[in-house]
Amino acid sequence: MRHLLGIDDLSSDEIRDIINRADYYSRALADGRWDRNKLQHKIVLTLFFESSTRTLTSFDIAAKRLGADVVNWNAELSSLSKDESFSDTIDTLSAMRPDAIIIRHCEYGAPNFVAGRVDCPVINAGDSWREHPSQALLDALTITQEKGELKGLTVAICGDVAHSRVASSNAKLLTKMGANVRFVAPEFLMPQKLPCESIKCFDNLEQGIEGADVVMMLRIQKERMDRGDIPSDAAYFNNHGLTLERLKCAKPDAIIMHPGPMNRGVEIADEVADDPTRSMMKRQVANGIPTRMAILDLLVGG
Ligand code: NCD
After folding, report:
1. Less CB within 10 Å around the terminal CB: N or C of the chain?
2. Ligand 1 mean position to 283 CA, how many Å?
């Protein structure tokens, strides 16, 4: 493994390897015992061309927990605002010889383009609606810790599936690992092309989560939609929001996941989001750190 650009590039053995290493770091963090100098003298450069709350901070903390120095490059303060081309910016940053580049970009395949121009490992922190591999890996760690294994589970991915890179990466990873993936979305939020043929599609939330082990909710990505296509929050919640009542259709021990940012009262009700035993949102955020430590360790730790 030289880069982490998308789930497509990973074999099921490589996925299992990363999850196992992430699980090791998750326990090591809880015990306070791990190699804090693993990435000493390594410089990790983060290039975020899109806003982010959890992913940027999570990579930053993960790298620092392993002793790396992190440089957070800021697109708004860069020469891109002086009309420098994207490729010249990348060549310039590459000439400074970072040990890894973590990139988020709105353009389809931008991390792959960067990987073709630089000498260090490149990690995709989310590009367009295509891929968000580290999110799918931390979700897989969370599900594995709760349910034991991914194989044979029914996972319903619900909401704005069409514009979601989280849905796409999760569907590919979970299918590869033997889970049964469903997409649950009204027609206007269902992708035209499915990432895997085996995915079953539903337009009704109750039917879509029937018997599910995992219910994963997604925000409506308004920034990727035409204004006219966006329904009112109240109408969307009425028809497609996850309430405690609707959740009764899933298995009684189903877990609820959400990559965040979450829009309460739109795709999810407060009492579901705050369910003390079944809601995994905080666990997912916490698991972001050991998962990204595992990724950095594998790619940069040598
Ligand atoms: C998502 C993203 O940016 O792709 N969030 C995340 O990284 N955890 C999902 C979103 O923006 O809705």
Report:
1. C
2. 16
